[in-house]
Amino acid sequence: MNHFRHSRIFRVKEGTVVFRKLPLINKSAKGFNSDSCGYLVQRPMAAAETLIQKIGKAVKEVAKTRSSEWWYTPHMAAASRAIDERIPLVDLVLEVRDARIPLSSEYLQLRKFPSSSRRVIVLNKMDLANRPQTKEWLRFFEEQKCMAFGVNSHNRENIREFLTFLQGRVRELKKKDGTAHAITLMLVGIPNVGKSALANSLHQVGRIAAAEKGKLKHSVVSPQPGETKSISSLKIASHPNIYVLDTPGVLPPNVIDDGICSKLALTGAIKDSVVGEIQLAEYFLSILSLSDEYKKWGTLPGFETRQVLSNEGISNPDNRQKRQYPTDHTQDFIVNNVRRTLFDTVSSFTGCIESGKDLARLIEQELEVLRKVFHLPLESEESSYFRAATKLLNLYRTGRLGHYTLDSLPSNDPTLSPWL
């Protein structure tokens, strides 16, 4: 794996990523500006920059105290030391990243170790990311001489393919080193990238393939970050025996820039309460509104949406839709209402969403109509919008509101690798 030091490739300013100036890059390209030192600066869309800075500031404030319950806690520090001790001893290190943020979810601890052919970058949750962009990222890592594999931990066929890939790597290692012992792989990564879910799926598929009997073991899986507290071992294959170590997620000791903080928060690597659910929902709505994803929902029927948004749909106790609404926002007809409502709201907006002020106004409108679509009474405005934000984030994180890759490729030039 090729590692490049930051000073050779890029400098990070607050909220910006700076690449070395290259003649092949068009300075006038959208999203790039030249700074006073002659570097090309890729900035987040100006319209969403305020939200990004707010989220980054919230994360930094909590991390600065060192007393929070989630940022580089004592158990993370202990896990980091234990992982560092085991890395030289295991046969293969699987660095699990979130496919939605292939660079921002890097496990920075690995930079302390020399590059190695015994390392694989695993882009998990690929079912939640933009598929064409995931393929581009896998190609990018390949160009950087990094082994990489895209995975959906909940797709059994995909897990079989990944297990076959790992067994192939193991055979190569045994042939090269002549090892006769059982093979040990170790999953490492930041919180909530799906390490435990991946370990469980490999264990289940591997045991079935080997026709082994006995009770299946399970690592603890939770949508909340930081649930895995200790290192556990699961057997995933026989002949040769292969074991995988599931490890706790570890954040870097020092907070990174605003853009990375905001992406980690939105994808769930950081607890929502640190930033605030409403602020995270606003950030997601800014991404959705500035993308083309919502345009796919224009053909959805709008009848149910209009009925829900009407006063009659909210107040009439005999309304059939209302009786279906109270608890489960994941029902298909509600999700379709959310999609169609967002399409209608963005499409009919008369302002310029590239403008920060206009985008903020649009987001306010979106949250208001979503409160009605989710059928939340305005008993307490703060509580109502909080619940709407929580439901919206859940739909985004389960892939019900489109597939988004939040990190952009650094460059088509394979020599640019700021994070590897």
Automatic annotation (TrEMBL):
It is found in: Mitochondrion. This is DAR GTPase 2, mitochondrial. Transmembrane segments: none annotated. The lineage of its organism: Eukaryota, Viridiplantae, Streptophyta, Embryophyta, Tracheophyta. One of its GO terms (molecular function) is GTPase activity. It comes from the Eukaryota. GO terms for cellular component: mitochondrion. Residues 76-253 form the CP-type G domain. Keywords: GTP-binding, Hydrolase, Mitochondrion, Nucleotide-binding, Transit peptide. GO terms for biological process: mitochondrial translation.
